[in-house]
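*** Backbone structure tokens ***
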Amino acid sequence: MKKTIRLSLLFAALLLTVFATRVQAQTTAASQPRHKDMIVENPDADADIKIVSDFLNSLVSGDLEKAKSLLSEEFKGYGPGPSDSSTAEQTISYWNEIYKTQTNRNVYFVTTTFRVVSGNLKGDWVALWGNYSFTQDGKNISFPFQYTARVTDGKIDTDQTYYDRLYILETLGYKVIPPEK
């Protein structure tokens, strides 16, 4: 009987050790790659910054032909919302509609650039943040934005834009009506 109890206790201790090791292994965070292992200097920094800057300045100034020439045929744009996306044609068409209602368009921004060396975001990126302003329906609107674009072979192939769309709509007089309960 003592032998059975000892074997049971030994077996229970072994199971407890295995379980504790397994739980610890599952809760230990995977080591994150270091910044310098993922991000390096963009060797085409000045050229890529010029492409992205020229693209935004062309949109704001109304030069859609030049803006479109800076987008790749495979271009895909995202934002400002998580489900918003557009092709090059849709982006140009959207800005063509903006010109019908907005006047006094102006943009100011600062830029930085970097190269992601691996993964699904691999490539040369230009990030900028700034302020966009315009007049619509007699109202002056100004808001901050953030824009990041990947440049491949001298063209923007993807971008992501963030800004507060609700602020713009409320400034133009739109009202948010909460759902009925």
Q: What stands out?
A: Residues 15 and 66 are 69 Å apart (CA to CA). Residues 35-171 form a domain with the Nuclear Transport Factor 2; Chain: A, fold (CATH 3.10.450.50).
